[in-house]
Amino acid sequence: MSLRISTHLLRPPARALLRSADSIRSWDWLWQPTYGRRWHERFYRVRDDPYGCTVNPYDRQKYDRTLDLLAGRQFPSALEIGCSEGVFTEMVAPRCGKLLGIDLSEQAVERARARLAHLDHVTVMRATLPMEMPPGSHDLILCLDVLYYLPKDVLIGFLPRLKAALRPGGLLFALHYLGDFGQAMRGKEVHDLLVARLGLEVGHDEIVPGVGPAGAGCRVTCLGIPFPRHEHSGEGE
């Protein structure tokens, strides 16, 4: 998701609207504390590319940085969480044997399907996480500017399922804007939680300064699970 829309539109009117994971487990609008699924459906209905993913300099920078860090690797199976209309999905697709994109909004999913119809190995589906986490495991999981829409306790509860969806030797790639536009969590806190609680090897962790609204920067973290020891032990040689 992009951050082009004005901050006053995204700022929740009251932090008291944040509820515990138990109280919102079945609610459709979980992705943002105030602006959830119904808000997003209206938002996407107004115009194509409402987040400006095709023109926003910040989005182009984050997509380029992601592709640079993934360079030289191919992923048999990949999952993109929060794929929106499929702009980055199309860019990363050549690096994936199979690619599943998921998004909260049916409007966004329909547009992503149209954009990606020429790619037989790409599937797009509507899902509300963490309740509707698709089954299966992946070699790459992409989380670009999306996890900070979850309240902290919901994200903590989701992390074991996120880890379980990552295959041995796989890569969890997270990138989040570091400014405050009224989201449930700040980007730094999201990445600190990923590093501290997932128990995965940190392959890369950097802050990219000067990008995004007000030049607040973004943080990029790559986490992976080493292959099981016996697969590299030389047994049987």
UniProtKB/TrEMBL annotation:
Gene Ontology molecular functions: methyltransferase activity
Source species, domain of life: Bacteria
Keyword check for Iron: no
Pfam hit, one: NodS
GO BP term, example: methylation
Transferase recorded as keyword: yes
Keyword line: Methyltransferase, Transferase
UniProt-listed CDD domains: AdoMet_MTases
Protein name from the UniProt record: SAM-dependent methyltransferase
